[in-house]
Amino acid sequence: MATALKNIALVGASGNVGKVLLPALLASNFTVTVLRRASSSPSTIPDGVRTVDVDFTSVDSLTAALAGQDAVVSTVGSAALGAEQKKLVDAAVAAGVKRFLPSEFGCDLANPLAAKLPVFAPKVEVARYLEEKAQATPLTYTFVYTGPFFDWGLQYDFIFRSAGARPLLYDGGNAVFSTSTLDAVAQAVVAVLSKPEETKNRAVKFQSAAISQAQLLEIAKEVAPERDWQPEVVKLDDLTKAADERLAKGLFDGETFAPYILRAINDERYGPKFEELDNELLGIKQLTEEEIKAIVKEKLNN
Ligand SMILES: NC(=O)c1ccc[n+]([C@@H]2O[C@H](COP(=O)([O-])OP(=O)(O)OC[C@H]3O[C@@H](n4cnc5c(N)ncnc54)[C@H](OP(=O)(O)O)[C@@H]3O)[C@@H](O)[C@H]2O)c1
């Protein structure tokens, strides 16, 4: 039987995922220690939460901060996904941490095509590194695959561009993708940590809904009929060709990488719709049609 995971080190608590996850962990009675960069803004962490400033370039600094921790949950952003996370893994091994959840929270990288997309290279590298460590040391891992975030993705026009009522439908927008609310992501992480044996050395996949851009457009028309919706079809091949050219020029930025993520979400060959779901294991309920509409309506009005 696996030992319970009680002491949780959260890395990246001030970010999009971390700031939703931190209160969920605290509410579930985990003992949380936040590891943050000395340069991080202190105001984002609630009073009373144990916080340790670390140097992400130093395995010693990270190892000292992880003493006594049962699990590391990394929600670091794109700048820290590669080298920094590998150092964090090394430190977790050195400190005797039992479980490591790397900063995934997105596409199913068990899909070979998705795993080859340049944007995911650091995540794939860390995943392979964790698999090696799990063979050679007592450290275990769980990869949390969520699909694009539903509420966040609507808010930032990422899964559906509502700005100007001019949505971009990638290759027509008919590919169905799994998508999860940030609350569901936090709930899933809590469940993974609460069920260490069932979630050991594997990926978990879940969804709040499976939906396409075309379906989102129909909902948008229904909840905001006063807008003059004029979708534009965009070819993913054109976007990724331009991204490949930028990559060849050494331009490693959001403009280069976003098209690859759009490909992973909107091209069914890349596995955007999860076929096997861990919703039941993790206690994640899917949204009803009415709940989906309510979220779309709220996001369109904000
Ligand atoms: N599925 C989706 O739709 C979706 C959307 C967004 C993100 N994601 C994924 O979710 C994960 C977290 O993303 P996020 O948007 O929450 O991240 P974020 O807000 O960009 O950053 C999270 C935290 O990472 C830490 N950080 C940033 N740069 C760092 C560096 N150079 N070294 C060490 N730490 C650094 C910071 O924490 P401190 O200041 O506390 O050090 C920051 O608050 C990523 O894997 C991302 O790909 C998925």
What would CATH call the homologous superfamily of the largest domain?
NAD(P)-binding Rossmann-like Domain
List the domain count as a whole number. Answer: 2
Quaternary state reads single chain
Strand content: 15-25%
Order of helices and strands: EHEEHEHEHHEHEEHEEHEHHHH
User: Using DSSP, what is the number of strands?
Assistant: 11
- Any low-confidence stretches, pLDDT <50, length ≥5? none
Largest sheet: 7 strands, parallel
Class inferred from helices and paired strands: alpha/beta
The CATH C-level name of the largest domain is Alpha Beta
Q: Which kinds of small molecule does this entry bind, naming each only once?
A: NADP nicotinamide-adenine-dinucleotide phosphate
Shape: globular
Percent helix, as a range, is 40-55%
- What would you report as the Rg, rounded to the nearest angstrom? 19 Å
Arithmetic mean of pLDDT: 96
- Cα-to-Cα separation, first versus last residue: 47 Å
Number of helices: 12
CATH topology of the largest domain: Rossmann fold
